[in-house]
């Protein structure tokens, strides 16, 4: 009897915790390549909080890859208020004199938020 009661209590408490997930929702929002400056171009990408609460500092990590190469990684992240967008700039620069070159990017947010389906953004930019 005691084991049955203990099992019921453990299952019900874990079910309640599963329902209490975070109410922030980080979205891999936008990626663009800046105009040529001094023969170089740089990627900028935006992370948006579409949820109803603030995403705490360091509750997420941001990865940005181009053609499979890691261009930037950020784990010292700032809080993001609901509706706020933060723009990151990749420290790696792309030579601009490569007309027609395809740049396939992948923006990934590692976090536990309300909607993990919008935590990745893939695309392609042609120089």
From TrEMBL:
Signal sequence, renumbered to the chain: 1-18
Key words, A-Z: Signal
Keyword Signal in record: yes
Name recorded for this polypeptide: FixG C-terminal immunoglobulin-like domain-containing protein
Organism of origin: Cyclobacterium jeungdonense
Record lineage: Bacteria, Pseudomonadati, Bacteroidota, Cytophagia, Cytophagales
